[in-house]
Amino acid sequence: MTQAPLALTMGEPAGIGGEIAAGAWRALHATGPAFFLIDDAERLRGVPIRRIAAPEEAAAAFATALPVLHRPLPRPPVPGQPDPANAPAVIGAIEAAVAFAKAGRAAGIVTNPIQKAALYAAGFAHPGHTEFLAEIAGTGTPPVMLLACPELRVVPVTIHEPLKQAIARLTPDLIIETARLTAAGLRQDFGIASPRLAIAGLNPHAGEDGTLGTEDRDIVAPAVAALRAMGIDARGPVPPDTLFTAKARPGYDVALGLYHDQALIPIKTLDMAGGVNVTLGLSVVRTSPDHGTALDIAGRGLADPGSLIAALRLAAGIATHRSRHPVAGAPQGAEA
Ligand SMILES: NC(=O)C1=CN([C@@H]2O[C@H](COP(=O)(O)OP(=O)(O)OC[C@H]3O[C@@H](n4cnc5c(N)ncnc54)[C@H](O)[C@@H]3O)[C@@H](O)[C@H]2O)C=CC1
Ligand SMILES: NCC(=O)COP(=O)(O)O
């Protein structure tokens, strides 16, 4: 069976989404995976564009032009200057992509970065895609954000929240639930039969036996013990300053950081152009580049499409894996 095309959303129109979509098409048009962009066709430059009326037209067009499902923007975007008037179109593109994936008309969705503050200003009530997608394409479990590059996978246990609040919210149950969902996602989407999880400590030296903070002893260690009792190969709390060294990385399949930056700084430092953000536990396949809207370089031809290309390839790979290894009751990848 041929895989359905991937649906790529416009993201923030004042950011680099249009440029990297064009760059990704240039890199992939001869080899695939095929995708179509949900965006205002009038604003796109630098590559041949083919307006399509339905996802089913994308595959035939893809070799010679970037297929675009036209969604007009209310205001012409100005690079570097997000306009909340365009927010409904940005959100609408995400909703449309999800609808296509749920209907099996797209193999998965790949999201260009959104300018979160611009969407909040227009009334968007979700911290980011991850939480929004959990609402419109969830499976009843909390969403898990996983970032992957060839050398490292990371999961932040708490995602988009102030650091003080994230630490206050840490409990053994939260760590256990995130770790279980991560292990299930690695089995289902990455084909890792017995994932090895390393869970970071919170404090310097993972608390130094409770003398440098008690959370590692009282919250992380009991969570790790419970996970091991469930048969999950988890260890920790691992002192966070050495968890990501070249020597340590081959010892686990995924590292769980307890807050956003603990998990994301290492992967973005290691491989900003090759990192991909994946949401685990949705009813549809979803990936995105690891970076943001890059307003500082938008419209200047400087944006590197590498992470988007990796996101498109990984989404296609996960969709294929899901269709070849269906799990009863679990979300599937779409084939046409
Ligand atoms: N998945 C998503 O929708 C994401 C959205 N964001 C949003 O993006 C906005 C800006 O976030 P920042 O923290 O400034 O991060 P950013 O990733 O947009 O930019 C950080 C730095 O990296 C550079 N950069 C990013 N992507 C690049 C690329 N493809 N090629 C060359 N250089 C690149 C930028 O020019 C900038 O100097 C925020 O509103 C944030 O919430 C951030 C991450 C993911
Ligand atoms: N820092 C990662 C990030 O912001 C990704 O957010 P999301 O929009 O994919 O939820």
Automatic annotation (TrEMBL):
Transmembrane segments: none annotated. Signal peptide: none annotated. Binds 1 divalent metal cation per subunit. Can use ions such as Zn(2+), Mg(2+) or Co(2+). It is an enzyme of class 1 (oxidoreductase). It is found in: Cytoplasm. Pathway: Cofactor biosynthesis; pyridoxine 5'-phosphate biosynthesis; pyridoxine 5'-phosphate from D-erythrose 4-phosphate: step 4/5. The keyword Metal-binding applies. PANTHER family: 4-HYDROXYTHREONINE-4-PHOSPHATE DEHYDROGENASE, D-THREONATE 4-PHOSPHATE DEHYDROGENASE. Belongs to the PdxA family. The active site is located at the dimer interface. This is 4-hydroxythreonine-4-phosphate dehydrogenase. It comes from Paracraurococcus ruber. The lineage of its organism: Bacteria, Pseudomonadati, Pseudomonadota, Alphaproteobacteria, Acetobacterales. The gene is pdxA.
